[in-house]
Specification:
About 25% of the residues lie in helices and about 45% in strands. The chain is an alpha+beta fold.
Length: about 675
């Protein structure tokens, strides 16, 4: 019975509503976000009296939510406007495609969208940062309906060791987050995740938006580590240093590093740029003084210094030529010690006191015969077999003391007087046999002259000639020398091939630089002796001679059939020098000549420089270190002020050509 009554009432209501027309005055917006309010404006027109509830439904994605009812009373023909507000909260917190329908299911509005989306955009997107810098995130947040967000923002940064969460408020659609990056942040790429959201009065998230971007933490040089090998260096050896650059977390950085070697006088003696983690090597010449040098290592504006201590080197070199013993101080301190000389089974202790670079000579004597001689100095021994000695007793004597000993005997004076009387007698008798002796002398002189011409026939005609002597008294001087090795000398020595003129031109150029020439088989030496050049700074002239040799022989090889296989070396060291008439007598000390020969034999048409000479030309030339076998040398790469140098060489060559044409 009750069901029948309800159906009757419902029918009456439907009948009454059916007689009324509901019109929408203004359609809803196309998009809303949760939390917004939908304003509805309807007009109801009836054709008969109406007194009933006005029912409507909010429908989203098929889900109906009843809008609160409003009771209407209208006379026939009347109309009324109805304004309603529908806040998208609580039971109306639905999203998707929505509309408003009447109680009878009639669609009263167009479809509209209810969204939960927030668009997040960064105002400036800086991606590269250094440790310690502030990471600042500025952004803008708008809801899909275009409204400005009033809510919250969270930024999450996933570092290796931990995850950082940062929170701020979003006001009027804008937000700013600031975070100081730790000084020890590892260089890498990291992701920053950003979330913007709004909440309702029940603290439930309504709208939200996400975005992410990457930031890069850069490597920052913070420490320059110096790794060294043997910084307490013995002269005649090298020290090694390398620089390792570290970043904020101790990781290595690949970069360049500059090494500057400064001696104890504050003079820059070497500067070189290498890669980090690569060893820089510098050779200390054998007689370098005891001192503390400084090496500055610079990379990425970070500088470190390290001291290099040049140790005391007490060392002598002994050399036995025939029966003369040469002892040279090749160390860097005064040598005050003894050298033991064993002749056969007998030993002689020789007290030696030598300044740096000093040389002393001693003569070995023994009863006539052939002996085995052993020389012991500083614990090192050298053995020489088959040494022929003469004398009355085994001894090692200073030559000057031997001269005094020789003239101290009366029999010697008697012998000298007899010789003088005989010479006087010959001179007295010369007046009677002048013609006879004159003829004989003339004949003999002519023969000697011819022999001398044959003996002294050399490859170049030198105006400044030098001769090697195994034993001379003279001045000790440090000499710059150029050694030219003619490797295929035998191919052209007896031929007319044009090589002679080239070598003569080279000799003339060396003469213009005040060099003296010494010829030894297939070697030509050009010696720049301070006594001859009147200066101790002969390294520039040495370089010019070497370059003239290279240019001249290379030019010859280009245009002539007979090629010259040659090598050039530069060296510097001590010699005993004596000027005799128009020529120089010399005796090389130590291994000066042998090193020059050895290095020139390794050259293939380029200039090779000994370590000793390299230290002298560093300010005027650039060289590259090289090694073959156990021989260390430097290759000449470039001469500074090379344009002026080439102009000088060209001018000299042109003058030589003019002189040759005149002849």
């Amino acid at each position: 019975m009750r069901n029948i009554i309800a159906l009757i009432i419902f029918g009456i209501i439907l009948a009454s509503l059916a007689s009324a027309e509901i019109l929408i005055v203004e359609q809803p917006n196309e998009i809303y976000n949760l939390g917004d309010t939908i304003n509805l404006n309807f007009k109801v027109v009836t054709l008969e009296d109406l007194s009933n509830f006005f029912n409507m439904n909010f429908v989203c994605n098929g889900k109906k939510t009843k809008i609160p009812q409003e009771y209407l009373t209208l006379k026939s023909g009347e109309e009324i406007g109805i304004e309603m507000t529908l806040p998208l909260i609580k039971e109306f917190k639905s999203s998707g495609s929505c509309n408003i329908q009447s109680g009878l299911g009639e669609v009263l509005t167009n479809d509209f969208k209810v969204s939960t989306l927030i668009d997040v955009e960064l105002l400036e997107e800086k991606s590269d940062f250094i440790p310690g810098e502030n990471l600042i995130i500025n952004g803008e947040a708008k809801k899909e309906n275009g409204g400005l967000v009033e809510g919250f923002v969270e930024a999450k940064i996933g570092f290796d060791s931990e995850e950082i969460l940062l929170s701020e408020i979003v006001s009027n659609g804008y937000f700013t987050i600031s975070y100081p990056l730790p000084e020890k942040t590892k260089a890498d790429e990291y992701t920053v995740s950003i979330k913007v959201y709004e909440k309702d009065e029940e603290d439930v998230i309504t709208n939200n938006g996400l975005m992410s971007y990457n930031i890069k933490i850069l490597q920052v040089p913070t420490n320059l580590e110096i790794v060294s090998e043997n910084v307490n260096v013995m002269p005649g050896t090298s020290f090694k240093i390398k620089g390792i650059l570290h970043d904020q977390t101790g990781e290595k950085i690949s970069s360049s590093v500059v090494f500057s070697v400064i001696n104890d006088k504050g003079i820059l003696v070497e500067e070189k740029e290498l890669s980090t983690d690569e060893f820089f090597e510098y050779f200390i010449i054998p007689n370098e003084s005891v001192a503390i040098w400084n090496v500055e290592v610079v990379s990425e504006m970070i500088m470190q210094k390290i001291n290099v201590i040049i140790l005391e080197n007490k060392n002598v070199k002994t050399e036995l030529i025939n029966k003369t013993l040469f002892i040279e101080n090749i160390g860097n301190v005064f040598y005050n010690d003894s050298v033991i000389v064993k002749i056969g089974n007998d030993s002689v202790t020789v007290p030696v006191g030598l300044a740096v670079g000093g040389v002393e000579k001693y003569v070995l004597t023994a009863p006539n015969g052939e002996y085995q001689v052993e020389i012991i100095a500083d614990g090192e021994s050298s053995l020489i077999h088959g040494v022929i000695l003469t004398g009355r007793a085994i001894d090692v004597k200073d030559p000057s003391s031997m001269a005094l000993e020789f003239v101290s005997y009366p029999i010697v004076w008697g012998f000298i007087i007899v010789i003088l009387l005989f010479v006087a007698f010959i001179i007295f008798k010369k007046g009677y046999k002048k013609t006879f002796f004159g003829y004989i002398t003339s004949k003999k002189k002519e023969t000697v002259s011819k022999e001398k011409d044959i003996k002294e026939k050399t490859f170049v005609a030198s105006k400044n000639k030098a001769e090697l002597s195994l034993s001379i008294e003279g001045d000790k001087q440090d000499v710059d020398l150029v050694c030219l090795k003619l490797k295929n000398f035998e191919e052209f020595r007896d031929k007319t091939s044009g090589v002679e003129q080239v070598l003569q031109n080279i000799n003339e150029f060396a003469y213009s630089k005040k060099a003296v020439t010494y010829e030894n088989q297939d070697y030509l030496f050009f010696l720049l002796i301070p006594r001859k050049t009147k200066t101790f700074k002969n390294e520039k002239a040495t370089l010019e001679i070497s370059q003239y040799i290279i240019n001249s022989l290379s030019h010859h090889n280009k245009f002539f059939k007979q090629k010259v296989d040659f090598g050039v070396s530069l060296n510097y060291g001590p010699m005993i020098i004596k000027e005799d008439d128009d020529k120089f007598m010399f005796m090389g000390l130590g291994d000066l000549m042998s090193v020059a020969k050895k290095i020139s034999s390794l050259s293939h048409g380029e200039v090779l420089v000994s370590p000793t000479m390299n230290s002298r030309i560093m300010s005027t030339a650039k060289t590259d270190k090289a090694e073959e076998g156990k021989v260390v040398f430097y290759k000449l790469r470039e001469i500074k002020d090379n344009d002026q140098h080439k102009k000088f060489l060209k001018g000299f060559a042109e003058r030589m050509d003019k002189d040759k044409n005149k002849k």
